[in-house]
Design brief:
Number of helices: 10
Structural class: alpha/beta
Strand content: 5-15%
Radius of gyration: 17 Å
Largest sheet: 8 strands, parallel
Order of helices and strands: HHHEHEHHEHEHEEHEHE
Helix content: 40-55%
Shape: globular
Length: 257
């Protein structure tokens, strides 16, 4: 899996700025069936409880398959939420009736809880993408990995109003056996990808579309980004890709859990 190393410096700045943001209290409103399925005690409280006593563990293996079967695809969108790009992507997904999995950075979720709630209310799923998007975290201590995963889980859950992430995606694919086991014990299936759109490099809309179509035989889980820089090319690419894929007979779902 490719590592987007250039993201680390950007997220260092974001993390520093976001630490001063006041986290909204968990909302009283019920959200969707997803909320009912994954709502639970806050990770902060649960972390001190008996492991697995308050959440349902899932498989530790890295998921790539779609719950829609052989012609199913998973749209996954990383690094947000972002106040400029996430709303535009939500509009496109709604226009084409596509649900996606948003892999959120903890500090971004903490800074933009309104967007986290909009993602959930639209029927999309949440994914823990760590606190600070450290693509080298697989070379660091288990204590550090735990802090990155569990603190992000808490931040996202609080920002959403109580809806917990259903997946965990390591930044740049920096999984370790420990991080996979920890995430799975918290009910978050480790999530990989098969098709890297390369949108992070901003190669142009045509290049992003061509990459997706070329790499699609690799598997059903597609990787895009809604933060970490200007994402106008990703927005334009999704506007072209989604109807193309539908015309080719694909359906859209969520990664298997």
């Amino acid at each position: 899996m490719a590592r987007h190393g250039s993201a680390h410096g950007w997220y260092g700045k974001v993390a520093g700025a976001a630490l001063g943001v006041t986290v909204l209290a968990a909302g009283a409103s019920l959200w969707t069936a997803q909320a009912d399925a994954v709502r639970g005690p806050s990770p902060r409280a649960a972390a001190s409880a008996t492991p697995g006593s308050d959440v349902k563990p899932v498989a530790e293996t890295i998921a790539h398959a779609s719950d829609q079967g052989e012609r199913g695809l998973n749209i996954t969108i990383d690094d947000g939420p972002d106040p400029v790009w996430t709303p535009q992507m939500l509009d496109i997904l709604r226009e084409y009736g596509v649900k996606a999995t948003f892999c959120m950075v903890g500090t971004q979720a903490q800074a933009h809880p309104d967007l986290v709630k909009k993602v959930v209310a639209a029927g999309h799923r949440l994914c823990d993408h760590t606190v600070s998007h450290d693509t080298a975290m697989d070379a660091k201590s288990q204590a550090y990995q735990s802090q990155q995963i569990l603190d992000a889980e808490r931040m996202i859950t609080e920002a959403s109003g109580g809806v917990r992430p259903m997946y965990y995606r390591a930044p740049g694919g920096a999984f370790t056996p420990y991080s996979r086991k920890l995430a799975a014990s918290r009910g978050m299936r480790p999530l990989g990808w098969n098709v890297d759109s390369k949108d992070f490099e901003r190669p142009g809309t045509d290049a992003i579309v061509a990459t997706v179509q070329r790499e699609l035989p690799n598997g059903p889980t597609l990787l895009f980004h809604d933060a970490g820089g200007g994402r106008s090319q990703t927005v334009d690419a999704l506007r072209r890709i989604l109807p193309q894929l539908k015309e080719q007979g694909y359906s859209f779902g969520f990664p298997t859990r």
